[in-house]
Amino acid sequence: MSKPTSPSPRDRTEMFGAREGSDGIIRCDACPVLCRIRPGRSGACGRYANEDERLVRTDALVLMRNARDAGARMVAFAGKDEVWTGEVLTPSSTFITGVGAGTTYPDYKPAPFIVSSTHDGVDTVTVVSEGIFSYCGVKVKIDTDRHLGPETATVRCKGEPVGHVTTAEYGSQMLSLGGVRHLTGGSKKEGNVTCQMMLSLCNKDAVEFEIDDGCRVVVQAGHAPIVDGVPEERMRVGCGSATIGIFARQWHGEVDEVIVVDDHITGVLTEHQAGQCLDMPQAGIRVRGRRSTPGRYFQVAEPGGGWGGTDISDPLTIIKAIDPKIAWPGLRLLLTSTTGQDALYCVLDEDLMPQSAEMPEPVRKVVERIGENCEPSLCSVLFMAGAGGSLRAGVTSNPVRLTRSVAEQISRVTMGGAPVYVYPGGGITVMADVLKMPDQAFGYVPTPALVAPIEFTLPLETYEQTGGHMADVTAMESVLADYGEGARVSDRRVDNPWPLPGDTQNRRREQQ
Ligand code: SF4
Question: pTM here?
Answer without folding.
Answer: 0.88
